[in-house]
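User: Run a structure prediction on this.
Assistant: Running it now.
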Amino acid sequence: MKIKRFKKSLTQTNAEKNFLGAVLGVMALTIAILSIQLMSEDTKVVIKPYTLTEEAWITQDMASQEYQEAMALFFAELLGNVTPATVDFIKHRIDPMLSASIRQDVINTLSDQAQTIKTEQVAISFSPRSVLYERPSGKVFVSGRSKTEGPSGGTNEEQRTVEFKFTTKDYLPLLTRIDNYEGKPMTLELLEQRSKLQRAKEERG
C-alpha cells in the first residue's frame, strides 16, 4: 500500500515538475521576445520643457511637436538676445547643435554678427509672442518683437520671425534650417497667397 502511494506521489511530482518546466519555458520565451522587442524599438524619453507647459518626448531619431516648439523657443531667445559680452558664448553654445548642412553658413553669419556687435557696441533683444508648428513643412516659427539698442541709447524696434527646422540624431536635436526675417511667419498658406497674387498681377499686366 505504501509502495502504491509512493508511486502515485512520484507520478504527481514528475507531472508537477514537467508542468513547472513548461511554465518556465514559456516565461523564458516571453522574456526573450520582450527583450528583442525592446531592443528593436527606440526608447521614448518623456520630458517637460521649461519653456512649455505640456509634456514632450524625444526618441533616437524623432521628436514631438511640443519638443520642437520648446527647442525653437529656446534658440530664438538665445540668438535674439545678444550683447558684446555674450556673442562669443552664444556662437560656441549653438555650434554642436547645427547639422553639417548649415553649420558653416550659420557660424560665418554669427561671426560677422559678432564683429558688428562688438565694433558698434549694440545690444539685440527679442521678446517672443507666439510659437507656431507647421506640420506639412516641419517648420517651427517663433514671432515677437526685436529691439536693437546702440551705445548712445537710440533704439530700433520691429516685429520679427525666426524660422527653424529640426532633425534628431541619437536623442540630440539638430538644426537643419534657421531663417530670420521681418514680419509675420512665412507659412505655406501665406506663401501660397502671395504666389496667387503674383500670378494674378502677371496675368493682368
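The two ends are 115 Å apart (CA to CA).
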